């Protein structure tokens, strides 16, 4: 069994865990091969009891074992490919009956540490917005080792312009795994001048959050999965992408995420030339998914979830979660 170390340097705390090689070996391989990684810690805003980070990697591994998260043990590690490629740490009871892919388990002696970190993650996302960073590495690995740069397997035959675009996107994804993109900071602090009706910018901020989330998790990643199916040729995949992408990226660019829009325009120019192979299209798309995932994690973290704590609260009879079969 392979062992990993999860560290929260802002708190000076860490936890050891064992990967579930006996349950989802390919999924564990994907994480293991990407280590060490750095990301920002987020907390679930509906599920409760779970904290997670978007991992700077892209997994399409088969998932053999899932479990209901409201019946999973505290200390469970999960991995969610479909919602941003997230490493999830369960630190308390969860209140959703969805299924989660089993990634591993935190050591028993570190469970209380994980509970402590979870309470800080919850406080951070709802109230303080103090960034809580996480580093995941192989247990026993040199702590001074630099974080791994996100990588993708390049096609054997790859045009220079394709490789150049992918490298540029991955470089930016690496930057965004460690720090909030400056463009997003300008949006959420109202410095994207004049973008918002009635003299306010909250509506623009909300659009950037929701569009970046849906673009990365629920649009680009499903297309990435379609790229792995033999029945879809490259021209069909390009048509699907072109039908969906421009609305997202043109709006996001107008609202302040201009680097994202520029990368999308470069991608569309290559598509327009009708010379990409399926492997090249997949290579660029995967890089784009990885990059937008890194943007989405910051949009999610800084979104003002605490507003809900001031406005709408459960009545006492509806306050506690009840598992239903």
Automatic annotation (TrEMBL):
Top-rank taxon: Bacteria
InterPro entries the record matches: Cucumopine_C
Lineage: Bacteria, Bacillati, Bacillota, Clostridia, Eubacteriales
Cucumopine synthase C-terminal helical bundle domain mapped to chain residues: 162-299
Protein name: Cucumopine synthase C-terminal helical bundle domain-containing protein
